[in-house]
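ok, trying the design again with the full structure, not the truncated one.
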């Protein structure tokens, strides 16, 4: 797998340090509350699990599975809800955990859906942000790192289901996904 990586952008140590910083901010803000953490499957699983271990407040965890990628490399722009929440969010603060904000279609759809269900507040916590690809107006409240407009894998992010288990964030070689 490592031979398929053009460049490592962020090491495990850099990711851990940044997640500690974000967790401290979230812990300060949500002390005494019990927000619902919503993990966006499947890419955000690694990030969510590592993040909630750092949070020092009561929380509930749920997940949704949404998709806007038709062929694995390009966003289709249409979002499909594959798996819905099992929790009632009416009147609750919600923190959406996302692996990467790309075009923004998925997060806009999800934030609008949860607002419509009566969430008290919605904040977005994303491991990565790729602002050069944004097509809709959506921003995260907490961002680990900004990344270039390249194909990013590792730490939960994949190409055709592979590379999620890399302990770092890297750029996938073009030769891997253009064949």
């Amino acid at each position: 797998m490592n031979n398929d990586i053009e460049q490592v952008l962020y090491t495990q140590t850099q990711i851990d340090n940044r997640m500690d910083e974000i967790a401290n901010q979230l812990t300060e803000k949500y002390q005494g509350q019990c927000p619902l953490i919503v993990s966006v499957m499947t890419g955000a699983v690694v990030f969510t699990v590592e993040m909630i271990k750092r949070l020092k407040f009561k929380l509930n965890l749920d997940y949704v599975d949404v998709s806007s990628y038709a062929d694995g490399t390009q966003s289709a722009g249409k979002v499909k809800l594959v798996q819905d929440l099992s929790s009632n969010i009416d009147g609750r603060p919600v923190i959406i955990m996302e692996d990467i904000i790309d075009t923004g279609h998925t997060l806009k759809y999800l934030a609008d859906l949860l607002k419509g269900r009566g969430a008290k507040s919605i904040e977005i916590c994303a491991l990565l942000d790729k602002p050069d690809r944004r097509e809709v107006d959506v921003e995260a409240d907490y961002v680990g790192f900004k990344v270039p407009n390249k194909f990013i894998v590792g730490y939960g992010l994949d190409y055709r289901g592979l590379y999620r288990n890399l302990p770092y964030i890297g750029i996938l070689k073009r030769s891997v996904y253009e064949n």
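Keeping the full-length input from now on. The chain has a mean pLDDT of 93.
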